[in-house]
């Protein structure tokens, strides 16, 4: 007898490993996660000092494993020529999907280092001009506003511009407040945005890391969650158990109220995502 799987679009995000041991471990993690039948697996770029070659190497491994691999690709500090060359390399590697981002300048770089692309919308437009419909293009979305934006409205309009430039689908920054997501989706749709806006889901497996990361990306951690996480101290078993309950409930609500799928920030770990998906009936 085959069990029926809950059907929702699922994608997974990894970061390029820094060492041969990390690469070996990630291969095993991917192998475990492929059983979930992801639509695609994306690989970050730049964050934590990763290079585009590290990203491409990991995407090539994913493609060789018979899965769809999507490099994250940021444009800040880049020239048209360098982006053109990178797109050609992606094409040759057999890549059909890109997560197109502005990215952030490493600290110490002044505004003069911005390059020829100011916003992700410039990159999306350029990819379409240069390569037509060859690549499916994902972009980032910020239900709780991008931290550098002037206002939620300005950020929403910037998002709509990015979509008009040719994005096919969007992945959100991590969030724990589903109301922020649904409001953002409603407001985007009211502006005529018709592409899927897929929630980016961060499993909770520790407390200090997640609280720190949430602060950097402007994600609200509801007071009740923060207090509980802090109260567990070093008790990782309780943190993980709480994290699984909270994130399962978040995903359930998102899917039952119409989210088009889920994108998991795996942090190169399989256990939490496997358990979350098991609980979600995937
Ligand atoms: P944009 O959409 O260009 O927005 C950046 C800022 O500019 C926003 O404040 C926006 O409101 C504003 N803006 C945009 N267009 C206009 C306009 N026309 N006029 C005025 N203001 C405008 N970072 C990495 O370094 N590597 C990664 O791999 C990575 N992966 C990510 C994956 C996802 C799903 C997400 C959501 C983010 C990721 N990031 C990554 C972080 C991202 O690079 C940063 O959040 C970055 O600061 C913004 O990138 P963006 O593509 O959203 O930029």
Walk me through the structure.
The structure is a single chain. The chain is α/β, with parallel strands linked by helices and 282 residues long. The chain has a single domain (9-279), classed as TIM Barrel, CATH 3.20.20.220. The protein is 46% helix and 15% strand. The protein has helices at 20-34, 52-64, 80-93, 120-131, 152-164, 178-190, 208-217, 223-231, 236-256, 271-279; strands spanning 9-14, 40-43, 69-74, 97-101, 136-141, 169-174, 197-201, 261-265. The protein has an 8-stranded parallel barrel with strand order 1-2-3-4-5-6-7-8, surrounded by 4 helices. α3 (80-93) links the parallel β3 (69-74) and β4 (97-101). α4 runs parallel beside α5 and α9 (236-256) crosses α10 (271-279). The radius of gyration is 19 Å and the shape is globular. The mean pLDDT is 94.
Features:
8-stranded parallel β-barrel; alpha/beta; TIM Barrel; about 280 residues; binds flavin-adenine dinucleotide; about 15% strand
Summarize it.
With about 280 residues, the protein is α/β, with parallel strands linked by helices.
Q: Ends: how far apart?
A: 16 Å
CATH architecture: Alpha-Beta Barrel
Helix fraction by DSSP (H/I, runs of at least 4): 40-55%
- Write the H/E string, N to C: EHEHEHEHEHEHEHHHEH
Helical/strand content category: alpha/beta
Question: How many structurally independent domains?
Answer: 1
Summed over residues and divided by their number, the pLDDT gives a mean of 94
CATH class: Alpha Beta
What's the arrangement of strands in the largest beta sheet? 1-2-3-4-5-6-7-8
Q: What is the CATH topology classification name? A: TIM Barrel
Using only C-alpha atoms, the radius of gyration works out to 19 Å
Q: What ligand species are in this complex?
A: flavin-adenine dinucleotide
* Low-pLDDT runs: none
Largest sheet: 8 strands, parallel, barrel
